[in-house]
Amino acid sequence: MNILGIETSCDETSAAVLLDGRIGSNVISSQRCHTSFGGVVPELASREHERTIVSIVNSAVTEANITKNELDCIAATSGPGLIGAVMVGLCFAEGMAFALGIPFVPVNHIEAHMFSAFIPESPEHKSPEGPFISLTVSGGHTLLSLVREDLSYDVIGKTLDDAAGEAFDKTGKMLGLAYPAGPVIDRLAASGNPHFHAFPRALTSSSQTSRSYRGNFDFSFSGLKTSVQTWLQKHTAEFIQTHLHDIAASVQYAIVSVLTEKAVAAARHFRTDAISVAGGVSANSALRTAMQEACRHHGIRLYIPGTVYSTDNAAMIASLAALMLSKGTVRKNNYDVAPFASFAAGAIKASLK
Ligand code: KG4
Ligand code: ZN
To answer: Do 2-116+310-326 and 129-304 have matching folds?
Structure first.
């Protein structure tokens, strides 16, 4: 089965083709128009998707070495995301599927991250078997879930305020770094001292008694943001510039150690022997190293997609569509799917009912 996936939920326009379970193409165009605004401007994002979607889809089909008439199905992100941006990809995909007379599959963007351990990255790719813990860390979401093979899952923890990606982006902004600051902090931190300053790690064993902490899989990053702000106010611009790498490494350490500790604690609590880490923040090199070390120590199998599949991409959309089709969890639709803004509104479990 040949599946075209389309992703436009934020500031990446992406199209990918899955050819009988292998990736034929995964074309990603990142919007540059937001840089001077320090964040994604929704209206500009929609307009940019509109401008590029035809050429991105054409490139994906051409790179996969097929014609549009050889497509069996089209899948697209139907939410959550910037509604205007989602609508560009969703309407385009539904219109194209309608014109070709083939099925359309709506995909939840966050679930696509959550199941990205199933993206067939290479012919040797091994997907998780049995239940696993998923740590999904993106710009707007931070979720810990217990995922089962039938694609059902329970969210066992989530952020009470900022997402992990937001923590990187907002603290980075305070440091004068360009948006998105996550990759910039990652680069700066590579030559910094993570123990230069101990920023707070909320809701972990370091901040609570072990009794109240046990079994609490929620996250909170707003205290870190405030702490960074207060700390920066106490130091001169010159001192901050001199120690930029150390500050970046210390902020990164605070975020990464919380994520790692919670994911491993969840795997042990639910007695699963596998963890998958996905979403834009899973591209972070310190998080990858920390998760590898922690999982090796506890005998847990770790699944982290290659960085191109960590941040937003359409291969994960086509891949989850393929999985949903194989498990029979796809609703019949008449090309009339409405976009949704919140994660829960379009969750697989809801569509199974
Ligand atoms: O999944 P994603 O590409 O888009 C959303 O669904 O939100 O995640 C974007 C987030 C941004 O907050 C960005 O700063 C963060 O992922 N990110 C990183 C890295 N690469 C992207 N954070 C830390 N280190 C990175 N290398
Ligand atoms: Zn994403």
So the answer is: yes
Please tell me the least confidently modeled range out of 129-133, 231-235, 296-300.
129-133
> Between the CA atoms of 37, 42, 43 and 48, what dihedral angle is there, to the nearest 10 degrees?
90
Q: Say yes or no: CB of residue 312 within 6 Å of ligand 1.
A: yes
Query: Best of 277, 281, 317 to mutate for ligand 1, by most ligand atoms within 8 A of CB?
Result: 281
Question: What CATH number is given for 2-116+310-326 in this structure?
Answer: 3.30.420.40
Q: Quick check: CB of 61 below 6 Å from ligand 1?
A: no
60-93: per-residue pLDDT in tens?
Answer: 999 999 999 999 999 999 999 999 999 999 999 9
Ligand 1 pocket residue status of 284, Cβ below 6 Å: yes
Amino acid sitting at position 81: G
- Domain coordinates of the chain in residue numbers? 2-116+310-326, 129-304
Tens-digit pLDDT profile for residues 199-217:
999 888 777 555 556 678 9
> b/e string for 85-112 if b means 16 or more Cβ within 10 A?
bbbbbbbbbbebbeebebbbbbbbbbbb
- 162 C-alpha to ligand 2 centroid (Å): 15
Looking at CATH, the fold of the domain delimited by 129-304 is given as: Nucleotidyltransferase; domain 5 (3.30.420)
Average pLDDT value over all residues in the chain: 94
| Per-residue pLDDT at 176 exceeds 80 | yes
Nearest to 103 by CA among 325, 317, 316, 320: 325
186 in ligand 1 pocket by Cβ < 6 Å? yes
